[in-house]
Amino acid sequence: MTPFRLTCIVASVLALSACGGGSDEPGRGALLESPTTVATLSAAQIDATSTSLGLRPLSGTARCDVKVVALHYATPGARAGEHSDASGVLLVPAGSDAACSGPAPLLAYAPGTSVEKPRTLADPQNGETFLLAAMYAAQGYAVVATDYLGYAKSSYSFHPYLHADSEASSVLDAIRAARTAAASVGASLSGKTMLAGYSQGGHSSAAAQRAAERDAPAEFNIVAAAHMAGPYNLSGSLRVPEAIAGIQFFVPFFITAWQKIYGDVYTDVRTVFKDPYAAAIENLLPSPTLTYTTLVTTGKLPGGTPAQAREALFQPAFLTGIQTDANHPLAVAARRNDLLGWTPRAKVLLCGGAGDPTIPSAVHQNVLKADFDSRGVTNVVSVDVDAQVQATFGPGGAAPTDPTSAAYATYYGNYHGSYEPPFCHAQAKALFDSVK
Fold first, then answer.
1. Which band of pLDDT confidence, cut at 50, 70 and 90, is reported for residue 6?
2. Measured distance CA(309)–CA(303) in Å, rounded
3. pLDDT tens digits for 82-100?
4. Please, what sign has the CA dihedral across residues 194, 198, 201, 202?
5. What is the pLDDT of residue 25?
6. Is 419's pLDDT higher than 90?
């Protein structure tokens, strides 16, 4: 009997249906440990922090305290037949306000990319966790967020980065885990479910909506979804000649992950990457100890401008191949993980900023919206928050234009990770409020 099966038996005290019939492995979303409340954020604490961050005009005044509950649940690996696990967080609204005690809609959230393997959203100090608490849980939503395969408590041997199917599994199994855990941590769920994700999470939440509506519409009552600043058009992005901000982190991450999954993206890692980086890059991300900054300062990945980092890291023939050959193995893998050509049933918000230097909306969001429009899909709205980002963070209310200036580096260095998300979350919450 596997350790998973033992813990599944324990978890089934909470929900007798959590484990599959005669299988030696727990059912998808089965709890592998009892849910653990790691902290409670009071409404006053949330208000104080959101005020100090300048978030409160968007999040509003907190109506509820928020319990931060750690989850550990079963979910498949990226390859056929694999059984694995992931961790995550359930944010539970609490308090005397009617919005905090009645049956709550469940928002399933997929986070952005982290290069840090220990990262978990079951951490009240995590910035993304606080954003979810302030924007949603403190307003009466229950929120469940996955850490993904290969992070935190997950025993999976790598993170299948930007692999649509396993991202979808991680998100949907987190919903199952949250439903099982709810009663034991004081959460009451209404049965309505929303999906949201930012950056990598936008890709994940879109993949989860596609999978839920296609494969299990009776199980998941998806009433709305917000996919924010996600890389939906991965194959198209390979043909873009300009280097994105963060190219030295994100592109090697999905190349090496897809090689582990499909086995045919390359035959020799040195045909893709230059030395000295090629020697260690296949198992570099996510890192047990290094951050975005220290990956560069320790020489594990190159720094400099996006163009300089690309030049230092990638073999020229490889770059030419992915930009010109539609049958290049990486292009084939990318098409398998594009999120074009599907038709959502629930209302969808696409949100991003036209100035995003990491996931350009012209390459991803606009292409996805055009794809929906070309097939007569009418339940998708696309929003550009660039004007709000410029007005709030641009010097003099406009984006800086001198690439050699410190203001330019600061503005575009913070655009995708800090400036853009709260504006998109505010748009998402407005959609969710209309259907909750």
1. very low
2. 6
3. 999 999 999 999 999 999 9
4. positive
5. 84
6. yes
3-class DSSP assignment, residue 198: strand
Cis amide leading into 286 (omega within 30): yes
- pLDDT tens digits along 354-372: 999 999 999 999 999 999 9
Per-residue confidence (pLDDT) for residue 76, from 0 to 100: 98
The token pair that represents 140 in the structure block? 């009466």
Q: Determine contact, residues 78/160, Cβ cutoff 8 Å.
A: yes
Cβ-contact 38, 124 below 8 angstroms = yes
Residue matched to tokens 């005020």: 51
Q: What is the pLDDT of residues 236-255, one digit of tens each?
A: 999 999 999 999 999 999 99
Which distant-in-sequence residues (6+ apart) come within 8 Å of 65 by Cβ?
Answer: 40, 41, 42, 43, 93, 94, 95, 100, 138
Strand partners, 39: 68
Mean pLDDT of 20-37: 84
Other residues' Cβ atoms within 10 Å of the Cβ of residue 266? 17
- Closest Cα to residue 217, out of 102, 111, 343, 79? 343
Which DSSP string corresponds to 109-156? EE----SBTT--SS-TT-HHHHHHHHHTGGGT-EEEEE--TTSTT---
pTM exceeding 0.90: yes
Q: In what order do the strands lie in the sheet with 36-41?
A: 36-41, 65-76, 83-94, 142-146, 104-110, 189-198, 222-228, 347-352, 380-384
Location of structure tokens 């959101």: 50
- Cis peptide bond prior to 276, omega within 30° of 0: yes
Q: Which of 46, 31, 131 is nearest to 88 (CA)?
A: 31
Tokens for 395? 């010097």
Question: What dihedral do alpha carbons 365, 369, 371, 377 form, nearest 10°?
Answer: 150
The proportion of the chain whose per-residue pLDDT surpasses 90, expressed as a percent, equals 93
Closest CA relative to residue 86, chosen from 18, 174, 163: 174
